Inverse folding.
């Protein structure tokens, strides 16, 4: 390949899905099948990626592709934890993956990480297919080498019915995400409908069809964007690792051009991009030799897109997963400027709001988007662990709704944990964005209710009660009667008045189901004791009584929006009663 010439690179395929739904097993089966079906056995497992050459795909697919010839060199599967790798590998604000496989256990259906994966796929507009995995776990399923249509048709009636029920449930869940899906062989236009391939990573059923559909979609819809230059290499950092004898290294996916072992690189960091020279360009041995413990990596002189590679270089301390990598050819300042613009997370911060921390640029972007969709204000959003200084900053905020930290896939540093113990800050420390958002919904409801309770407790609240004539427990010293709270609430210590404004005494105690309580609310029937009155003289059965509000509380309650409609009606009635004797009361 001469400098500047164009060639077709292999599409990058990300495998996403919920934990234990079979992502790794699926890739393991593909790797194993590809090695077996390729005479040379030299399928390459790069860093964090598995390269399956086109002749290995022909071998696995057999008769499915016997009439078809592809110009693609193969497929490069991203082989790291599902949605995490997907958000990490980004390019110009989008995903590095050209295609994706969403793995769903057909027996379990959608789980938190499945929902999260599908949201991310939609956000990045990445074409994907669904592997409806673990069909072998359907009770009574008979393994067969037929293609899916015949395989399903040949199952016993009750097994086929069970499969169809699970499939329609899956299609329904996808439909709730505002997407169409169907079995791949029923689809005429893959741009409008997501193909579902029934698979078993255990028996290998459906794996040839999965590869066939992926390579077919790539050839048909992506070929133009897969034509790349063999010029200066461009890539994305997958992980930063400490390697014995090498120090800090980066695992990277190269998606354009080529990198040579003496190139100068510019790599994104949390601050200014770092400019560094490559010390070593390393690739693992081909898959059939990878278990050989004597030599883990081959030192290579150059690599071409698309591939995974380990890079050893100085000054990698502040490099972050998801950061762009560029080979410097020509104007260094221009390359630095480009890297800075790609590392910058482009969104507006709020003057007040919560703290958001994540492990990679892509994760941070996804978390910000989810938060914004819920109307959550964000004061600060950064990559990295949660520090003591940040705990102090969040604790200083006055708004209780902002005493909150979203910590996605990051650590809370020991000093920060100590500081946290002395605060009322809530931290959602999770590795699934979906779970953070679910926790937030629950937390916000509880917080609102708690603050509402506190606000209510600051004021004497309006209450209206009815004396139930059949419940007179004691006539006097003190009088003990049964009442129903018609609206609002009553508390011990509150004074009661009649509809003519006369004060009859204070509530000495409240009992509900023979137990003393501090307050009673609308709808409850309780016994109350009132000192200084005699039933039949000051009060009679069926009397309606009101709480006597201090004038300052009555005025405040009118201004604040803390009462429900019934309570507002009672408050208005109390104003009417009071203004019979003082027409300026509460003004």
């Amino acid at each position: 390949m001469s400098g500047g010439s164009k060639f077709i690179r292999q599409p990058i395929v990300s495998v996403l899905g919920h934990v234990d739904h079979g992502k790794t097993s699926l890739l393991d089966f593909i790797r194993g099948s590809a090695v077996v079906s390729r005479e040379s056995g030299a399928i390459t497992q790069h860093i964090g990626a598995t390269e399956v050459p086109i002749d290995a795909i022909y071998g696995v697919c057999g008769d499915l592709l016997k009439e078809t010839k592809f110009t693609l060199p193969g497929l490069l599967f991203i082989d790291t934890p599902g949605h995490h790798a997907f958000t990490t590998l980004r390019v110009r604000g989008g995903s590095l993956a050209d295609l994706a496989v969403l793995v769903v256990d057909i027996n379990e259906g959608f789980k938190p990480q499945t929902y999260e994966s599908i949201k991310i796929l939609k956000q990045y507009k990445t074409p994907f297919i669904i592997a409806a995995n673990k069909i072998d776990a359907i009770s009574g399923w008979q393994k067969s080498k037929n293609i899916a249509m015949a395989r399903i048709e040949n199952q016993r009636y009750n097994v086929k019915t069970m499969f169809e029920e699970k499939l329609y449930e899956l299609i329904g869940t996808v439909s709730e995400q505002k997407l169409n899906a169907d079995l791949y062989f029923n689809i005429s236009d893959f741009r409008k409908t997501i193909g579902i391939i029934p698979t078993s990573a255990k028996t290998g059923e459906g794996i040839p069809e999965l590869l066939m559909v992926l390579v077919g979609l790539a050839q048909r819809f992506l070929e133009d964007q897969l034509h790349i230059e063999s010029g200066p290499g461009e890539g994305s950092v997958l992980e930063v690792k400490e390697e014995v004898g090498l120090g800090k290294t980066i695992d990277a996916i190269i998606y354009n051009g080529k990198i040579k072992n003496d190139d100068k690189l510019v790599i994104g960091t949390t601050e200014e991009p770092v400019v560094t020279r490559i010390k070593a360009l390393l690739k693992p041995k081909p898959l059939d030799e990878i278990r050989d413990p004597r030599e883990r990596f081959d030192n290579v002189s150059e690599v071409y897109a698309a591939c995974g590679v380990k890079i050893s270089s100085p000054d990698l301390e502040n490099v972050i997963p998801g950061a762009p990598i560029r080979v410097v050819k020509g104007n260094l300042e221009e390359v630095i400027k480009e890297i800075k613009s790609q590392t910058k997370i482009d969104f507006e911060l709020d003057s007040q709001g919560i703290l958001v921390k994540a492990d990679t640029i892509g994760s941070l972007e996804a978390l910000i988007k989810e938060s914004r969709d819920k109307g959550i204000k964000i004061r600060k959003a950064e990559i990295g662990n949660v520090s003591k200084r940040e705990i102090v900053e969040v604790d200083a905020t006055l708004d209780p709704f902002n005493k909150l930290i979203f910590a996605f896939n990051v650590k809370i540093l020991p000093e920060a944990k100590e500081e946290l113990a002395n605060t009322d800050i809530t931290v959602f420390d999770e590795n699934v964005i979906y779970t953070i958002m679910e926790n937030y919904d629950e937390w916000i409801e509880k917080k609102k209710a708690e603050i509402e309770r506190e606000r209510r407790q600051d004021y004497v609240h309006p209450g209206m009660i009815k004396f139930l004539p059949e419940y007179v427990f004691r006539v006097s010293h003190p009088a003990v009667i049964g009442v129903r709270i018609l609206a609002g609430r009553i508390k011990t210590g509150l004074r009661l008045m009649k509809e003519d404004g006369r004060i009859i005494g204070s509530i000495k105690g409240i009992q509900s189901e023979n137990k003393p309580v501090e307050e009673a609310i609308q709808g409850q029937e309780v016994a109350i004791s009132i000192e200084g009155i005699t039933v039949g003289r000051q009060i009679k059965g069926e009397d309606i009584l009101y709480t006597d509000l201090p004038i300052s509380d009555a005025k405040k309650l009118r201004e604040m929006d803390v009462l429900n409609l019934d309570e507002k009606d009672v408050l208005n009635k109390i104003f009417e009663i009071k203004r019979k004797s003082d027409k300026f009361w509460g003004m």
Notes: DSSP finds 14 helices and 34 strands in the chain.
